[in-house]
Amino acid sequence: MWIVVRIIFMEQMINDSGKREEKNAETAVTLATTLAEQFASRADEADREGALPAEDVAALKDSGYLGISVPREFGGFGLSLRDCVAAQLALAQGSTSTAIVAGMQVHIFGHEREVRNWDDAWYETFCRLAANGALFNSIASEPALGSPSRGGLPATTAVPAANGDGWVVNGRKTWSTGGKHLTHMLVRVALEGENAVVLVEQAMPGVEWITTWSDSLSLRASDSHDVIFNDVHLPKNYVIERGDAKAKPNVWFPMIMSTIYLGAAMAARNRVIQFALERVPTALGKPIATLPKIQRQIGEIDVSLQAARSLLFDVAAEWTGDDADRKKMSARIAAAKTMVTETANTVTDQALRIAGGSSITKALPLERYFRDVRAGAMQPPSGDTALEMVGRAAIAEFEE
Fold this sequence. Notes:
By secondary structure, the protein is an alpha+beta fold. The chain has ten helices and eight strands.
């Protein structure tokens, strides 16, 4: 009898746990959709000013959204990669610039949850901070180094302080998404001849921001400016990681970044449909949405988006979090990211053509979506490198 009761109780616990996880995911998507509506009302002006709205950042912090990939035991949602992709896809349809700021934090904590490069004390501290509204990003790219994904030792250095108490950081970093809104920067440095990551807090003396991003082609309101570290003094224990940044590839980064560009393309699709329903040329006397040509063009957009979305979600759902699967999944991830970015480029171009002359003015947000998705080709894996990864995996299947 006890065994039967215990089995039933355990089954109920498993079912309840599954329901809680499902509810958490639904809550996150609902929250993301609500935030996206708010962000959308400010996105055009933010793009024109080339500045991340403080209201957007406050909403992200106050809502708890920044903790969607943080474990529940530390106050977060504890969502899977697949569920974080769903939430980010909803968020990006409101503002791609704000969504990429949030996405940086989401991928960092999702990846760290699996690989645990930080010691237990820092991990718990950072997780609780993130779940309570702190804004993190990895600050790694440099003018000469480029992306750290290509290897190399940073020019930014951390050297022992003259008094032997802590470290002194000097250097310049580029593409530091979030800018002055960041509260915690995980800065990649050269330390004692090897790669390392140190914690720099925004309020520390010696942190200087240079406005370099406001008139960029894409994501103008993401505050991805340059940051300079001038003799920034850190406590001894602020060395968070040591070693190769590529030791365990970050599966979360390309998947979460893909949501930014697919979200923009979906927003372009929605806006051009709205335009087609509202546009009534005098000579036609009815909305252009009634024209077979327009219907066919929107149909082409929808087929492309459905295929890209399906592949992205399929790959995200396949990820187990196990290190043994990282290499095996790399080709699938490269395929999903490539399909998403190429689809986003094509769809936003098609949306411009459907809307005609109005689309290249600020009267519609279509030109902003068109510009924003171009950034996807600059984030790894991309281009020939991504296609070669997919090709090698396909060939290897036959060799085996």
